[in-house]
């Protein structure tokens, strides 16, 4: 059987959205020093915020997608204030924060299901007609997904390297106490990390919902894939997360040519376990 | 009256099975500090292994291809061994790394096992599941007393796991586990091979969860993949944290409370016409309970009792407890 480039293209589409969500997860880990198990739920919330604006309020899709960002960010900041900040202030360990995020993930997922039921939903948007370009089928929506993801990744790169905020974020991630003693206001950095992390994740949720469907379990179902991307790139490393997300997405979609599509998550899992055995610090090495 | 008694018996049986699960998780998290977020994987492996070992060979109309018709005892032991093997396989890539890695990999494994259960019809019967799983001593015990007999069996399992956990508190092995949990570097400095100890603890806790799964299989007599979702892991965690991790009595108490809460709220829908939202509302409350407990009572209802050095010497001097 000749290799079908269609799988590769699907992989790039899926991978670029995973990469966005994984950057959010890895930034939050790097700055707040705990793995947020509720991260998938922020993705779901982003998708539902856009869905309400788009389908219930009848706003154009692009407007709805933009509106979803501040809504998700506001929720993430509110949840940080109520749930995580008190623990952080008391100097609770990373494991307390992690278990708390586990509880938060149950709450958010079930709250979404309570309000919108578990039925899959779709955005009200056109552009679903597939075009044939160079032997592969792609829709205008899918081209938009890839372009938006790439633009955002470049924006993150510029933010991290060209702005004071980005530099202080990287400094805090690599050595919190040193950053603190150099006069970095770490709580302010924490706030900005949630803004950027939750914002990117909300967009990822909207794009994934656009490519497939919106449902309450969508974020939790992607948690494993996002973790795999983060571990592949090295925990806390945003560039690694981009690379990891794209690789995992491509590996998953290409695997469909060989094994049952229901084992897509197993591909991500296998890659993750092999990497943990071989190179636990991530593909890009321990430079974080 | 008889109806209520039978209801109470079934609740107690399920609570007992969750207590075994919680005691296993307590060895992982409470004693050793291992973040296992895929506890349901061991539970499922225990349940499916004993089911496959004990169900009769398939007829032409059945989806599954393996049924060995072995005695229930063999099935339960097999379920425990299989769960222990899964623990070894899961432990190899994760137990040498930071705690977070185990959390991630275990939650992933549980998710993938669910896909295996749903898709591998030849092994698990797929979405339709496995039916007609035998119950131990079915022909010997009179049917009207059977549920009490089974409850007795579950209580025996809880007792065994509890007795083991108690011994662990006082044994040198248990002390090494707690030293790994509290200060791994100190433990390494004292020459302990911490990976090996972690692995042993991980296997023991996994075997307990496998036992719980096997008991569940022979109690429910039918297994479907939907019964092995992440909620089982959540409920066990909540039980352990609320009850008090590091305290075996706390693990049993917590498991009992969580199941009592679940069963008590099961009949609310009929009362207030809240049928649609109860299942999600229940989990929202359970999630909130975790957050509140970690925030305000991180040691749980029954906190771990530290045995001081002086008390320890006294116990050893007087020949133990």
UniProtKB/TrEMBL annotation, chain A:
Key words, A-Z: Amino-acid transport, Cell inner membrane, Cell membrane, Membrane, Transmembrane, Transmembrane helix, Transport
Any Pfam family: BPD_transp_2
Alphabetical list of InterPro entries matching this protein: ABC_transp_permease, BCAA_transport_permease
Primary localisation category: membrane
GO CC terms of this entry: plasma membrane
Biological process, per Gene Ontology: amino acid transport
Topology class, membrane: Multi-pass membrane protein
Metal-binding as UniProt keyword: no
Segments crossing the lipid bilayer: 12-35, 47-79, 140-160, 189-210, 217-236, 256-278
Locations listed in the record: Cell membrane
Keyword Membrane tagged: yes
Name assigned to this protein: Branched-chain amino acid ABC transporter permease
Family according to the record: Belongs to the binding-protein-dependent transport system permease family. LivHM subfamily.
Automatic annotation (TrEMBL), chain B:
Keyword Cell membrane in annotation: yes
Gene Ontology CC entries for this record: plasma membrane
InterPro entries with a match to the protein in the record: ABC_transp_permease (IPR001851), LivM-like (IPR043428)
Native organism taxonomy: Archaea, Methanobacteriati, Methanobacteriota, Stenosarchaea group, Halobacteria
Topological category with respect to the lipid bilayer: Multi-pass membrane protein
Subcellular compartments: Cell membrane
Protein name: Branched-chain amino acid ABC transporter permease
Record keywords: Cell membrane, Membrane, Transmembrane, Transmembrane helix
Membrane-spanning intervals of the chain: 7-29, 35-56, 68-92, 148-165, 201-222, 234-259, 271-294
């Amino acid at each position: 059987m000749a290799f079908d480039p269609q799988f590769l293209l699907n992989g790039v589409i899926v991978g670029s959205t995973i990469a966005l969500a994984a950057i959010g997860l890895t930034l939050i880990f790097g700055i707040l020093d705990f793995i947020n198990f509720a991260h998938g739920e922020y993705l779901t919330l982003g998708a539902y915020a856009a869905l309400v604006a788009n389908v219930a309020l009848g706003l154009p899709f692009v407007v709805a997608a933009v509106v979803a960002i501040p809504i998700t960010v506001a929720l993430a900041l509110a949840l940080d204030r109520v749930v995580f900040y008190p623990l952080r202030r008391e100097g609770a360990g990373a494991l307390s924060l992690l278990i708390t995020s586990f509880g938060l993930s149950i709450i958010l997922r079930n709250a979404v299901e309570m309000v919108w039921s578990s039925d899959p939903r779709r955005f009200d948007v056109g552009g679903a007609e597939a075009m044939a370009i160079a032997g592969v089928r792609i829709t205008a929506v899918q081209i938009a997904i890839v372009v938006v993801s790439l633009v955002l990744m470049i924006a993150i790169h510029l933010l991290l390297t060209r702005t004071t905020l980005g530099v202080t974020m990287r400094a805090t991630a690599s050595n919190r106490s040193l950053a603190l003693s150099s006069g970095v206001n770490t709580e302010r950095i924490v706030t900005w990390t949630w803004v950027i992390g939750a914002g990117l994740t909300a967009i990822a949720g909207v794009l994934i919902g656009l490519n497939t469907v919106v449902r309450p379990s969508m974020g939790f179902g992607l948690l494993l894939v996002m973790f795999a991307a983060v571990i592949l790139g090295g925990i806390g490393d945003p560039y690694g997360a981009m690379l990891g997300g794209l690789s995992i997405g491509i590996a998953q979609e290409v695997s469909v040519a060989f094994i049952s599509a229901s084992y897509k998550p197993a591909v991500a899992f296998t890659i993750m376990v092999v990497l943990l055995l071989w190179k636990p610090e991530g593909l890009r090495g321990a430079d974080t | 009256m008889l109806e209520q008694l039978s209801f109470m018996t079934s609740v107690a049986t399920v609570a007992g099975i969750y207590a075994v699960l919680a005691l296993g998780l307590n060895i992982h998290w409470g004693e050793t500090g291992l973040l296992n977020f895929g506890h349901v994987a061991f539970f499922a492996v225990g349940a499916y292994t004993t089911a496959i070992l004990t169900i009769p060979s398939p007829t032409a109309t059945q989806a599954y291809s393996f049924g060995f018709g072995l005695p229930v005892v063999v099935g339960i032991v097999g379920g425990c061994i299989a769960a222990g093997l899964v623990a070894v396989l899961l432990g190899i890539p994760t137990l040498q790394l930071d705690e977070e890695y185990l959390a991630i990999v275990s939650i992933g494994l549980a998710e993938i096992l669910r896909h295996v259960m749903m898709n591998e019809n030849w092994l698990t019967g797929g979405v339709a599941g496995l039916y007609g799983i035998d119950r131990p001593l079915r022909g010997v015990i009179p049917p009207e007393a059977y549920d009490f007999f089974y409850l007795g069996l579950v209580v025996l399992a809880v007792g065994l796991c509890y007795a083991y956990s108690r011994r662990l508190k006082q044994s040198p092995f248990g002390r090494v586990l707690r030293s790994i949990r509290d200060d791994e570097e100190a433990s390494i400095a004292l020459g302990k091979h911490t990976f090996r100890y972690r692995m042993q603890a991980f296997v023991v806790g996994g075997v307990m969860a496998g036992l719980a799964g096997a008991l569940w299989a022979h109690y429910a007599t039918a297994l479907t993949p939907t019964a092995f979702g992440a909620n089982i892991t959540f409920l066990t965690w909540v039980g352990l944290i609320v009850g008090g991790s590091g305290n075996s009595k706390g693990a049993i108490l917590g498991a009992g409370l969580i199941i009592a809460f679940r069963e008590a709220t099961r009949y609310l829908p009929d009362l207030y016409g809240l049928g649609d939202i109860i299942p999600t509302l229940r989990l929202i409350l359970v999630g909130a309970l975790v957050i509140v407990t970690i925030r305000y009572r991180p040691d749980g209802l029954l906190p771990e009792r530290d045995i001081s050095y002086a008390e320890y010497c006294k116990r050893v001097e007087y020949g133990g407890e």
